[in-house]
Design goal:
mainly beta, Lipocalin, 11-stranded antiparallel sheet, globular
Length: 138
């Protein structure tokens, strides 16, 4: 495993007061756990929406920048995961070769805060970026 990934690992708690969503409402709360197993990075997300509904989403990838098939996903057919030159952990989902979503995960200097910039590209409505700010769980 690339040691630059290690600071991203762990459980993070959403801070809705400083998060900013262009698409949809900021969830009331949530968590994100990032784990590594045998070179694969797993993302386990849970949010509590404004109506009190809990939404969960999970995915995983190998952080080598290669597009890999996502046969179980109805929205994207490939996903790549990589570290960019700034050290951010980036995933890119594609459908039919077109990028439909990019999520850039950026740590603050001391590793206590994780900001996820998720940009969704919709053919008929343009692009939207949601900025979710997490603090490390203790």
């Amino acid at each position: 495993m690339d040691e630059r990934i290690r600071p991203f690992l762990g459980t993070w708690i959403l801070d809705p007061d400083v998060s900013n969503y262009e698409q949809g409402a900021v969830p009331w709360g949530g968590s994100l756990t990032i784990a590594e197993k045998d070179g694969e990075i797993g993302f386990f997300m849970k949010t509590v929406e404004g109506e009190g509904e809990t939404v969960e989403a999970n995915f995983s990838g190998i952080p080598d920048g290669e597009d890999r098939p996502m046969p179980e996903n109805p929205f994207a057919d490939t996903l790549s995961l990589s570290l960019n030159t700034d050290g951010d952990l980036v995933s890119e989902a594609k459908r039919g070769g077109l990028t439909i979503m990019v999520a850039k995960r950026e740590l603050n200097e001391d590793g206590s805060q994780l900001t996820v910039y998720q940009t969704v590209h919709l053919l008929d409505a343009g692009s939207f970026t949601n900025e979710a700010v997490y603090v490390r769980a203790h």
